Amino acid sequence: MPELAETYACVPSTERGRGILISGDPKSNKVLYTNGRSVIILDLNNPLNVAIYGEHAYPATVARFSPNGEWIASADVSGTVRIWGTHNDHVLKKEFKVLSGGIDDLQWSPDGMRIVASGDGKGKSLVRAFMWDSGTNVGEFDGHSRRVLSCSFKPTRPFRIVTCGEDFLVNFYEGPPFRFKLSHRDHSNFVNCVRFSPDGSKFITVSSDKKGIIFDGKSGEKIGELSSEDAHKGSIYAVSWSPDGKQVLTVSADKTAKVWEIFEDGNGKLKKTLTCSGSGGVDDMLVGCLWQNDHLVTVSLGGTISIFFASNLEKAPLQLSGHMKNVTSLAVLKSDPKCILSSSYDGLIVKWIQGVGYSGKLLRKENSQIKCFAAADEEIVTSGFDNKIWRISLHGDQCGDADSVDIGSQPKDLSLALLSPELALITTDSEVVMLRGTKVVSTINLGFAVTALAVAPDGSEAIIGGQDGKLHIYCITGDTLKEEAVLEKHRGALTVIRYSPDFSMFASGDANREAIVWDRVSREVKLKNMLYHTARINCLAWSPNSSLVATGSLDTCVIIYEVDKPASSRMTIKGAHLGGVYGLAFTDEYSVVSSGEDACVRVWKSTPQ
Amino acid sequence: MAFRRANASSGMGVAEHSKSMYMELQRKKVFRYVIFKIDEKKNEVVVEKTGGPAESYDDFTASMPENDCRYAVYDFDFVTSENCQKSKIFFIAWSPSVSRIRSKMLYATSKDRFRRELEGIHYEIQATDPTEMDLEVIRERAR
Q: Do B130 and A532 touch (CB under 8 A)?
């Protein structure tokens, strides 16, 4: 049975113009964030150690550890809050439908008995505080008219709650049971985040008007603000206090993070500005931050997590990144089997190294979206949603020049002859385009709707699969294709075809959940009845010595079959990726890498028998 | 004087020796499995193949034709969690999706009539492809 060896986590999903809220547990040094329907628990000491919770039915927005670290409360866009255990397999304690719209922020009370949640909704239902185990309301929160972006619980008694939102207001509530006390309208734009200091004496609000204002924790009166010299030049999206309550970290759309010292009188003075190196585009805007123990964690719009060290602010940060969206294809470079390239449809190609984790992003000069992706030794070929095929040369970690070819209509599938990567075959609706280098050598109209294709490693043969489930085998002579045989066994449109590395067999998978292994020379079925998936097969991979075939499907499972044994003796990995498995590759005989809709890449190792 | 009560909607009868083969499997454990076929000419269910007690589940699945429907009875031996040896009889209606429509209709309408003859079946399984007849599935049902 293959065991999970490594997970390369996804990064928090971000949205332009809004901040995100990440939280953590100082005791175990873990950070919590969300991506799609998953909540990710990342260990700051060891970024390869991630746990993922995927039980939300709607995209999750924010998650928080309880003060004792035993429970996590997470919320999603449907207004539901789920409370589940940190250990013990994430068993669900309770689920409540709290607001009528999406929840933007969530906080536990310091004794872990109450939770306040704020977000979108109508009228009264913009903020709610309730008991964590029974869900009974502990107060009435009126005073806001628009989306409430953030809320905070005073960490010391007497309990107070502060909320702030898109109506530029900062509201202060006393309780329990919580009642409106007073409101401030000092900001002139959306108030993005409000946080109490750890000792409860002050709270700070930051806003898109580039200001940060400090208020007294007990009375709610304004006492000072962050100094305007060296202030941020863009909207401030998030704020976090240091554990001793004397400093705050703010992050802003001007791509910098600033550390301020807060004095007793309530004014703040800039201590240091932190910048992260990046390509300088919109992706470097910082949208989230967290100060935990000695680490200052900042998250950028492009998903890069930078970890600075509070004890040594000059030191360069540790940068982690990953995918934010569905990882649609994977490739393992033959020259370096430890290196894995993954690409997602938004055009991001990330390089991972087994055992180390994130290694870097492949920065291409043209950032188009990627639908199909193939990698040979020195080259990457990609096709997107425009009609172009890009050939990018790869030198180590850097992308060299890119050449593009326009082929006239949108490419559906793409295949490279691995031993002579000059030759590439691309299918569009019912045609095949043959490419040598960047020259379109010929365009052949096939007459049937094409859905999948594969080219033999030496470029002599091609197999094209159609919508009707028939496999057409063509011999490539010069610039033309000559049809040699038609194989009919599949009962659904072909989705993927792959040759085995030793060229003796090929395997095909279809939309009807079936995969078949064929002998290449005799064109006879070698292994059939590989019908164990319950939904369409998305991807297929061969092990390097051609003895194992792995199939990944929309039903989130990866099944590994041995070609010499009957299909019933298979190894199944259930729930490999929430949402479906889209990319598969073998790195060596015993390790499979899979990627999927949850934007994560996972490495599975099976013990040799 | 076998009174053949042929009141299946397909007009199918059950041959005497089909029932007696089944009784042998059930009472005396002479066979591991029995595979039944519908003989269209004689319009009744007859025994196509039997397997000795030494044969395994894989032999049984190998004897099922890929493109045609069958009825089968399999005697499954297993050990429960409390460590007692148990044996359950499974009735399998094998109706692969690749077989002809006429075949599927025939076997489907006659199944009820045939099953009534066989007393002592513990579990029934309908399989439309080999994965549904997998040993894992049988094991799960037996628990």
A: no
What are the sequence ranges of the domains in chain A?
8-241, 324-411
Query: pLDDT digit string (tens) for A425-436?
Result: 888 888 888 888
Residues 6+ apart with CB under 8 A from B58: A566
Cβ-based contacts of B129 with chain A (< 8 Å): 529, 531
Nearest neighbour of A532 by CB, restricted to B98, B131, B135: B131
Of the options 2.60.120.40, 2.40.10.480, 1.10.8.60, 3.40.1010.10, the CATH number for the domain spanning A324-411: 2.40.10.480
Fold of the domain spanning B13-142: Severin (3.40.20)
Q: Which fold has domain A8-241?
A: Methylamine Dehydrogenase; Chain H (2.130.10)
Q: Is A114 exposed, middle or buried (0-12, 13-18, 19+ CB in 10 A)?
A: buried
Best residue of A491, A514, A516, A529 to probe chain B, by most B CBs closer than 10 Å: A529
Residue A26 has pLDDT above 90, yes or no: no
Chain A residue with the nearest C-alpha to that of B62: A566
The alpha carbon of residue B58 is apart from the nearest alpha carbon of chain A, in Å, by 10
Task: Sort out which chain B residues have CB atoms less than 8 A from A567's CB and list them.
Answer: 130
- For chain B, the structural domain boundaries read 13-142
Tell me: cis bond preceding A566? Omega within 30 of 0 counts.
no
What band does B3 get if pLDDT is binned at 50, 70 and 90?
A: very low
Calpha distance A407→A527 (Å, rounded): 37
Its pTM stands at 0.83
